[in-house]
Amino acid sequence: MDRESSPGVGSVARLIRELNKLPGIGLKSAQRIAYHILRAPEEQSALLADAILSVKKETRLCSVCFNVTETDPCSICCDDRRDRNQVCIVEQPQDILALEHTGIYHGLYHVLHGAISPTEGVGAKDIRITELLNRLQSGSISEVIMATNTNLEGEQTALYLKKVISPLGIRVTRLARGLPFGTELEYADDVTLTRAIEGRQDL
C-alpha cells in the first residue's frame, strides 16, 4: 500500500488540514498539535473531541444580547445586579470576555457578530444592528458605549451606529484612545481596557 494513502498517514494529514483552518494556527503549529494529539492517551483525545462536539450542540445565541450562551437569556442579561441603563456594543462574543475580565464594566452588552465592511460585502443589514435598534426602543437605555475594534471597519461601524442611535436621544460614547489603532479588543490587556472604559468620550 502506498504510504500516503495508508489510513494512518491519511488521518493525520486530514487532522493537520483541519487544524490549519483555525485562526492563528499555521501549518507548523497544526503539525505540532496533530502529533501531540497522536501521542496523547486515547481518553484525553476523546475528552477533546467530546468538548468540541458539546460546544456545538449545547451553545446558542442569547435572544437579547446575542452573546454565546447555554441558557437563554444569558447569565449577564439575567443578572439583576447589572446596570440596565448602559449597553456596550462589541463585534464578537470573545470581546465580552476581555471586558468582563477587567471587572470595571457592570452594564449590559450587545454583540454585532461583525463590523460594516464594504470591501468584504458586509453591510448594516448583515450584522445585529436591527436587533440593537429594536432593543433601544424600550427607552430604558441611557448610554450606548461603542467598543468596536479600533480599525477601519470598527470605526465605520461606530460612526454608522452613532448616526442611527442619536435620534433616539441616547448618549453615545466611545472607548478612550488608550487602544492603539488597529487593535482587536480581545487582545488588549486589562489595564489598557480599564483606562479605555473609564476614559470613554462622547462620540
Description:
- The structure is a single chain.
- By secondary structure, the chain is α/β, with parallel strands linked by helices.
- It has two domains: 3-58, Orthogonal Bundle (Helicase, Ruva Protein, domain 3); 68-202, Dna Topoisomerase Vi A Subunit, Chain: A, domain 2 (3-Layer(aba) Sandwich), CATH 3.40.1360.10.
- The protein has eight helices and seven strands.
- It has helices spanning 7-20, 27-39, 42-58, 75-78, 93-102, 129-136, 152-165, 190-198, and strands at residues 60-61, 68-69, 83-90, 107-111, 143-146, 171-174, 201-202.
- The strands form two sheets. The chain has a five-stranded mixed β-sheet with strand order 4-3-5-6-7. It has a two-stranded antiparallel ribbon with strand order 1-2.
- Helix 5 (93-102) crosses helix 8 (190-198).
Keywords:
alpha/beta; two-stranded antiparallel sheet; Dna Topoisomerase Vi A Subunit, Chain: A, domain 2; disordered N terminus; 203 residues; Helicase, Ruva Protein, domain 3
